[in-house]
Amino acid sequence: MRIQSILRKIMKVLNVAEKNDAAKNLAAIMSNGTSRMRNGESQYNKIYEFNLQLFGKSCQMVMTSVSGHLLALEFVQQYKGWHSCSAEELFSAEVVKGCPENYEKIKRTLEREVRSCDKLIIWTDCDREGENIGFEIINVCKAVKPNLDIYRAIFSEITQPSVRRALQGLKRPNKNISDAVDARIELDLRIG
Predict the structure, then answer these.
(1) pLDDT (tens digit, 9 = 90+) per residue, 128-175?
(2) Nearest 5°: phi and psi at 93?
(3) Which DSSP symbol is given to 158?
(4) What angle do CA 148, 133, 119 make, to 5 degrees?
(5) Which residues lie closer than 8 Å to 88 by C-beta, 6 or more apart?
(6) Counting C-beta atoms within 10 Å of the first and last residue's C-beta, which end of the chain has fewer, N or C?
(7) Which residues, at least 6 apart from 168, have a Cβ–Cβ distance to it below 8 Å?
(8) pLDDT tens per residue across span 20-74
(9) Half-sphere exposure of residue 116, counting CA atoms within 13 Å on the CB side?
(10) CA distance 71 to 76
Protein backbone atom coordinates (compact mmCIF):
# COMPACT_ATOMS: atom_id res chain seq x y z
CA MET A 1 0.00 0.00 0.00
CA ARG A 2 2.82 2.44 0.86
CA ILE A 3 4.55 1.82 -2.52
CA GLN A 4 1.33 2.64 -4.39
CA SER A 5 1.00 5.86 -2.38
CA ILE A 6 4.57 6.87 -3.30
CA LEU A 7 4.04 6.01 -6.97
CA ARG A 8 0.93 8.23 -7.12
CA LYS A 9 2.97 11.21 -5.92
CA ILE A 10 5.49 10.88 -8.74
CA MET A 11 4.45 12.90 -11.76
CA LYS A 12 5.43 11.63 -15.19
CA VAL A 13 6.55 14.19 -17.78
CA LEU A 14 7.12 13.56 -21.49
CA ASN A 15 9.88 15.75 -22.94
CA VAL A 16 10.33 15.93 -26.72
CA ALA A 17 13.32 17.43 -28.53
CA GLU A 18 13.75 18.16 -32.24
CA LYS A 19 16.53 15.60 -32.77
CA ASN A 20 17.89 12.55 -30.94
CA ASP A 21 21.27 14.18 -30.20
CA ALA A 22 19.48 17.07 -28.49
CA ALA A 23 17.32 14.66 -26.46
CA LYS A 24 20.39 12.68 -25.39
CA ASN A 25 22.33 15.79 -24.35
CA LEU A 26 19.36 17.41 -22.59
CA ALA A 27 18.72 14.19 -20.64
CA ALA A 28 22.40 13.95 -19.69
CA ILE A 29 22.39 17.51 -18.35
CA MET A 30 19.08 17.25 -16.47
CA SER A 31 19.97 13.87 -14.95
CA ASN A 32 23.59 14.75 -14.13
CA GLY A 33 24.64 11.86 -16.36
CA THR A 34 22.36 9.26 -14.76
CA SER A 35 19.67 8.87 -17.44
CA ARG A 36 18.79 5.38 -18.65
CA MET A 37 18.32 4.80 -22.37
CA ARG A 38 15.79 2.48 -23.97
CA ASN A 39 14.61 2.03 -27.54
CA GLY A 40 11.54 3.62 -29.05
CA GLU A 41 9.87 2.25 -32.16
CA SER A 42 12.23 4.24 -34.38
CA GLN A 43 15.81 3.02 -34.20
CA TYR A 44 16.99 6.64 -34.56
CA ASN A 45 14.92 8.18 -31.76
CA LYS A 46 15.84 6.77 -28.36
CA ILE A 47 14.07 7.29 -25.03
CA TYR A 48 15.98 8.57 -21.99
CA GLU A 49 14.52 8.28 -18.50
CA PHE A 50 15.56 9.96 -15.25
CA ASN A 51 14.10 11.58 -12.15
CA LEU A 52 14.02 15.31 -11.52
CA GLN A 53 12.47 17.75 -9.06
CA LEU A 54 10.13 19.93 -11.14
CA PHE A 55 6.76 21.62 -10.58
CA GLY A 56 7.46 21.28 -6.85
CA LYS A 57 7.34 17.48 -7.11
CA SER A 58 9.48 14.47 -7.82
CA CYS A 59 9.00 13.76 -11.53
CA GLN A 60 9.80 10.79 -13.69
CA MET A 61 11.11 12.40 -16.87
CA VAL A 62 10.82 10.65 -20.24
CA MET A 63 12.88 12.38 -22.95
CA THR A 64 12.59 11.47 -26.62
CA SER A 65 12.71 13.22 -29.97
CA VAL A 66 11.31 13.64 -33.43
CA SER A 67 13.49 14.09 -36.53
CA GLY A 68 12.49 17.59 -37.56
CA HIS A 69 8.94 18.00 -38.86
CA LEU A 70 6.70 15.11 -37.81
CA LEU A 71 3.79 16.03 -40.09
CA ALA A 72 3.61 17.12 -43.73
CA LEU A 73 1.04 19.13 -45.66
CA GLU A 74 -0.07 17.75 -49.00
CA PHE A 75 -2.93 17.89 -51.48
CA VAL A 76 -5.70 15.32 -51.25
CA GLN A 77 -5.23 12.36 -53.61
CA GLN A 78 -7.02 13.80 -56.67
CA TYR A 79 -4.57 16.74 -56.84
CA LYS A 80 -1.31 14.88 -56.19
CA GLY A 81 -0.19 14.28 -59.78
CA TRP A 82 1.61 17.06 -61.64
CA HIS A 83 -0.86 16.95 -64.51
CA SER A 84 -4.00 15.99 -62.57
CA CYS A 85 -5.48 19.51 -62.70
CA SER A 86 -4.80 23.06 -63.81
CA ALA A 87 -2.42 25.19 -61.77
CA GLU A 88 -5.29 27.53 -60.87
CA GLU A 89 -7.18 24.70 -59.15
CA LEU A 90 -4.30 24.21 -56.71
CA PHE A 91 -5.08 27.56 -55.06
CA SER A 92 -8.38 26.19 -53.73
CA ALA A 93 -7.67 22.44 -53.66
CA GLU A 94 -8.13 20.69 -50.32
CA VAL A 95 -4.94 20.02 -48.34
CA VAL A 96 -4.37 17.68 -45.40
CA LYS A 97 -1.65 17.49 -42.77
CA GLY A 98 -0.56 13.97 -41.94
CA CYS A 99 2.34 11.86 -40.82
CA PRO A 100 4.53 10.56 -43.66
CA GLU A 101 5.06 6.81 -43.59
CA ASN A 102 8.76 7.13 -42.71
CA TYR A 103 7.85 9.00 -39.46
CA GLU A 104 5.02 6.69 -38.33
CA LYS A 105 7.30 4.89 -35.85
CA ILE A 106 8.20 8.20 -34.19
CA LYS A 107 4.50 9.10 -34.01
CA ARG A 108 3.62 5.74 -32.46
CA THR A 109 6.35 6.18 -29.84
CA LEU A 110 4.93 9.58 -28.85
CA GLU A 111 1.41 8.16 -28.70
CA ARG A 112 2.53 5.26 -26.51
CA GLU A 113 4.66 7.35 -24.15
CA VAL A 114 2.17 10.18 -23.62
CA ARG A 115 -0.55 7.80 -22.42
CA SER A 116 1.10 7.51 -19.00
CA CYS A 117 2.26 11.14 -18.72
CA ASP A 118 0.72 14.08 -16.89
CA LYS A 119 2.63 16.84 -18.67
CA LEU A 120 4.47 17.51 -21.94
CA ILE A 121 7.50 19.78 -22.35
CA ILE A 122 8.52 20.80 -25.87
CA TRP A 123 12.33 21.16 -26.33
CA THR A 124 12.47 22.07 -30.04
CA ASP A 125 14.62 24.90 -31.43
CA CYS A 126 13.48 28.33 -30.25
CA ASP A 127 12.58 29.72 -33.66
CA ARG A 128 9.42 29.73 -35.79
CA GLU A 129 10.14 26.35 -37.33
CA GLY A 130 10.80 24.84 -33.90
CA GLU A 131 7.52 26.24 -32.58
CA ASN A 132 5.71 24.65 -35.53
CA ILE A 133 7.38 21.29 -34.95
CA GLY A 134 6.36 21.66 -31.30
CA PHE A 135 2.72 22.04 -32.30
CA GLU A 136 2.97 18.96 -34.52
CA ILE A 137 4.12 17.06 -31.42
CA ILE A 138 1.34 18.64 -29.37
CA ASN A 139 -1.33 17.67 -31.92
CA VAL A 140 -0.16 14.04 -31.98
CA CYS A 141 -0.03 13.85 -28.17
CA LYS A 142 -3.35 15.65 -27.56
CA ALA A 143 -5.11 13.26 -29.96
CA VAL A 144 -4.27 10.55 -27.41
CA LYS A 145 -4.53 12.64 -24.22
CA PRO A 146 -6.72 15.74 -24.75
CA ASN A 147 -6.27 17.20 -21.25
CA LEU A 148 -2.48 17.11 -21.32
CA ASP A 149 -0.74 20.02 -19.55
CA ILE A 150 1.78 21.45 -22.05
CA TYR A 151 4.89 23.64 -21.63
CA ARG A 152 7.63 25.06 -23.85
CA ALA A 153 11.29 25.17 -22.81
CA ILE A 154 12.99 28.35 -24.01
CA PHE A 155 16.75 27.89 -24.46
CA SER A 156 19.51 29.13 -26.73
CA GLU A 157 22.05 26.36 -26.25
CA ILE A 158 22.30 22.94 -24.69
CA THR A 159 24.47 23.77 -21.69
CA GLN A 160 23.77 23.22 -18.01
CA PRO A 161 23.07 26.91 -17.22
CA SER A 162 20.77 27.32 -20.24
CA VAL A 163 18.85 24.10 -19.54
CA ARG A 164 18.43 25.00 -15.85
CA ARG A 165 17.09 28.46 -16.80
CA ALA A 166 14.70 26.84 -19.28
CA LEU A 167 13.34 24.50 -16.59
CA GLN A 168 12.85 27.40 -14.18
CA GLY A 169 11.12 29.54 -16.80
CA LEU A 170 8.85 27.14 -18.68
CA LYS A 171 6.29 28.95 -20.87
CA ARG A 172 3.22 27.94 -22.84
CA PRO A 173 3.71 27.24 -26.57
CA ASN A 174 2.81 30.08 -28.98
CA LYS A 175 0.15 28.97 -31.49
CA ASN A 176 0.38 32.24 -33.45
CA ILE A 177 4.03 31.61 -34.31
CA SER A 178 3.21 28.04 -35.38
CA ASP A 179 0.27 29.23 -37.49
CA ALA A 180 2.57 31.65 -39.34
CA VAL A 181 4.77 28.71 -40.36
CA ASP A 182 1.71 26.68 -41.41
CA ALA A 183 0.64 29.57 -43.66
CA ARG A 184 4.09 29.70 -45.29
CA ILE A 185 4.12 25.92 -45.79
CA GLU A 186 0.68 26.02 -47.40
CA LEU A 187 1.70 28.88 -49.71
CA ASP A 188 4.86 27.01 -50.71
CA LEU A 189 2.75 23.93 -51.52
CA ARG A 190 0.15 25.83 -53.54
CA ILE A 191 2.62 28.01 -55.46
CA GLY A 192 5.12 25.21 -56.00
Answers:
(1) 999 999 999 999 999 999 999 999 999 999 999 999 999 999 999 999
(2) -65, 145
(3) S
(4) 20
(5) none
(6) N
(7) none
(8) 999 999 999 999 999 999 999 999 999 999 999 999 999 999 999 999 999 887 8
(9) 11
(10) 15
